[in-house]
Specification:
The complex is a heterodimer of chains A (424) and B (318). Chain A has 424 residues and is of the alpha/beta class. Chain A is built from 13 helices and 21 strands. Chain A is globular and about 65 Å long. Chain B has 318 residues and is α/β, with parallel strands linked by helices. Classes of the chains: A alpha/beta (424), B alpha/beta (318).
């Protein structure tokens, strides 16, 4: 379809554009920016005046819960949530049931997602069979099936020799390895940051060293193997500093942070608010400001939602028994805007963390609106304020630490591959 | 942040923790407890009709004899109807969630819940969930809090020491896993005790415990020096498995309370223990049964303090 997006403020971080420009879509691609291409006849004109027009958002961590956990969420519900949040490409961790360790499973997931005609799904394949940390998966076959990287989600990989070999094998083919640093022995039974709040509330803690010791191992192995290593969801000041040093050294390391950790700290747990039971745990104010510094100087490449829908039954339990996780796809954009506003970061820089930077981690063809690029677009009203409440969320997961809070910035339209998939 | 224990008039609606409890409420409970005890008659406690017609449900998801029994006696002394439920930790594995259990009991017209649970925060969760006319008393949640134990300890200290503002108090043992210790620390600091010490090996102290307002000691002789009150904690046998301690024998040698170690404290120091005691592990029998021990009076005072808590809650909003 030929679409004319008219009168909006275009922000395209990849192309360093922040100006009033119309966008012209022909069929499935961006045909022109600013001036209509010759002979263009719009089948649909979208009035974007007062709106900001950006490349469709790219979220590097969104659990869709299929296959296996359909009682928490389904592809239908979560893909709807994605486009309602302006997210047009997302990558899902392999911790489904069964885990994404077989090409057939990945193909089925991609097929199911494609048939819904909403956001694009780029699965992260399991690095080891069953995420058990023992045997390597068929990474080449999984790549052919559509996997963009390999990881363990939150499952531990305690055998360092297996980790070394997984990295060596992945490096052979140039595959990316995505890992969340966590020493499973140090983190055992832990549910909150091992600090003042956990001590006060009597919650078993997860110390910062559980993150840094595992991260140190990963960085040394990356140096040894030359693998492309992506560090997922760092949470501590010490880890930010280690990644900064690794980048300075020239290791092929990238890194992301969850939006929850950009905004919240252990103090938000209050009196056992299970919505703040997250993995990794919320840490201190010092850690949060180090994460923000890391975003500012580029140590942290991308911000993700870490969308993890949890059913109410699994949340309405005492804090430690409640399942970790929060819904996030529909909050990613407003929370990035909030961070940018609080830190005085220009929108062009801020939005790079959820467009071009995150796209570079899974598929560089996404996350920008160059002429000829896939026509994935998000349009939002930066002034529109809305309240986070269950009825306002499309996701089947209704639990988030931000419940009841006011958000500024609301998606008004989402286009995927030249098709309008969401309008509000 | 709202204090979930207080109603909008600042009255005690639930007793969940001693943290953030206004000192006036704390003192009121101690005074009320005193009114139930006839000290002239060997600390005899009379039956009163304050909770007549009310139903108190003791729901224990974790085993307990002493706490449950004293709550039961306290409720009966207040003329309440008492229902005891020992649910055990297996009920959730049978499929019923904690809140389902609570809903069912609410449907049986409970007025007050006394809850013990192995997970920190369970009592808070229940308190947030129940209808506004129902009161919740935390009888111990995970490692978090055991406020009635701490209140009876405060009562005991006041009984023997009269004041709080001139005391030096040492809490000895497994602070890491102890809900009793956390509640004691908050109660002591709220009541104005100027020096609260914790004494334990590093493996049995939680991270940043000093932020709770205590001084940290690893050596018994130093930690007990000139203290007025020694509060011992129970050491669970399973601590030996988690690489926290090498053996009960070695623990006793360095942290068990003996007459010799107690000699470091002031001569009139009192020795307390929340029970049940492990003789020869955290405390020597000669101390437990000795002249400075107030362990059995603690139990008696516990009944009066629990009566005071229940009648305070029943009076809220009236």
């Amino acid at each position: 379809m030929n679409i004319h997006i008219k009168g909006g403020r275009l922000i395209d971080p990849r192309n360093k554009i922040d100006a009033l420009h119309d966008v012209f879509i022909v069929d499935k691609r961006v045909a022109a920016i600013g001036q209509a291409p010759a002979g263009f006849i719009a089948e649909q004109v979208l009035d974007a005046s007062g709106l900001i027009v950006v490349p469709g958002l790219v979220d590097v961590a969104a659990r869709l819960r299929e296959p296996g956990y359909e009682y928490k969420a389904t592809l239908e519900s979560e893909m709807e949530a994605a486009v309602a949040g302006g997210v047009t490409s997302l990558s899902c961790p392999p911790d489904t049931d069964p885990p994404l360790d077989e090409p057939g499973l990945v193909e089925m997931l991609k097929h199911r997602a494609r048939s819904l005609n909403q956001a694009r799904v780029f699965p992260v394949g399991a690095l080891t069979y069953g995420l058990k940390g023992a045997e390597l998966t068929e990474m080449a076959e999984l790549t052919d099936a559509g996997c963009k990287a390999f990881g363990q989600a939150d499952a531990p990989l305690t055998d360092t020799r297996v980790l070394l070999r997984a990295m060596q094998y992945a490096a052979t083919f140039g595959y990316r390895v995505w890992l969340r640093p966590l020493d499973s022995y140090l983190a055992k039974n832990g549910v909150a940051h091992d600090g003042e709040v956990a001590t006060r509330l009597g919650l078993p803690g997860i110390p910062v060293i559980a993150e840094t010791i595992a991260l140190n191992t990963m960085l040394q192995l990356a140096r040894e193997t030359g693998v492309n290593l992506h560090i997922c969801r760092i949470s501590s000041a010490a880890a930010v500093e280690m990644v900064r040093a690794a980048k300075r050294e020239g290791l092929k390391v990238t890194c992301d942070v969850s939006m929850n950790h950009v905004h919240l700290t252990e103090v938000d747990i209050g009196f056992f608010n299970a919505n703040c039971h997250l993995m990794p745990p919320l840490r201190t104010q010092r850690d949060r400001s180090a994460l923000r510094d890391g975003l500012r100087d580029g140590t942290i490449d991308a911000i993700c939602s870490n969308h993890s829908p949890v059913d109410d039954d699994a949340k309405q339990l005492p804090f430690a028994e409640a399942e970790a996780g929060a819904t996030g796809l529909e909050l990613l954009l407003p929370l990035v805007l909030k961070w940018a506003d609080e830190e005085g970061i220009p929108l062009l820089d801020a939005l790079a963390r959820i467009t071009t930077n995150s796209a570079n981690l899974i598929n560089p063809k996404m996350g920008h609106l160059s002429v000829g690029a896939h026509a994935d677009v998000c349009m939002f009203d930066p002034k529109l304020s809305w309240k986070v409440e269950p009825a306002a969320l499309k996701s089947q997961g209704k639990n988030t630490p931000f419940l009841g809070m006011q958000m500024q910035g609301k998606v008004r339209g989402t286009i995927v591959e030249g098709k309008i998939v969401y309008v509000a | 942040m709202n204090n979930p224990q207080l109603n909008k008039n600042g009255e005690l609606q639930h007793l969940l923790t001693t943290e953030g409890l206004p000192v006036r409420i704390l003192r009121n409970i101690l005074d009320k407890a005193a009114s139930f005890i006839n000290e002239a008659e060997h600390n005899e406690i009379q039956k009163v009709p304050l909770l007549h017609g009310k139903s108190v449900f003791n729901i224990f998801f974790e085993n307990s004899t002493r706490t449950r029994t004293t709550f039961e006696i306290a409720a009966k002394k207040l003329s309440a109807d008492v229902v005891n439920l020992n649910i055990g930790s297996s009920s959730t594995s049978k499929g019923e969630t904690l809140l389902d259990t609570v809903d069912n009991l609410c449907a049986m017209h409970a007025d007050m819940f006394v809850v013990r649970h192995s997970t920190s925060g369970a009592a808070h969760l229940i308190a947030q969930h129940v209808a506004p006319h129902i009161h919740v008393i935390n009888a111990g949640d995970g490692r978090h809090a055991h406020p009635t134990q701490a209140l009876l300890d405060m009562y005991t200290i006041r009984h023997y020491k009269k004041e709080f503002h001139n005391l030096r108090v040492a809490i000895v043992g497994d602070v890491l896993h102890s809900r009793v210790a956390r509640s004691q620390i908050h109660a002591l600091t709220t009541l104005g005790v100027p020096e609260v010490r914790v004494i334990a090996p590093k493996t049995l102290l939680p991270t940043m415990v000093e932020k709770l307002g205590v001084q940290v000691y690893h050596d018994m002789a130093q930690g007990l020096k000139d203290v007025d009150v020694v509060m011992m904690l129970r050491l669970q046998n399973e601590r030996m498995q988690g690489a926290l301690l090498p053996s009960a024998q070695e623990y006793f040698k360095y942290y068990g309370l003996t007459q010799e170690k107690l000699a470091q404290a002031r001569p009139d120091a009192i020795v307390m223990h929340p029970g049940p005691m492990n003789r020869g592990v955290e405390i020597d029998s000669s101390v437990a049964d000795g002249s400075q021990s107030v362990i059995l009076p603690q139990v008696t005072f516990g009944i009066a303090v629990r009566m005071a808590v229940m009648s305070t809650l029943a009076g809220a909003g009236k």
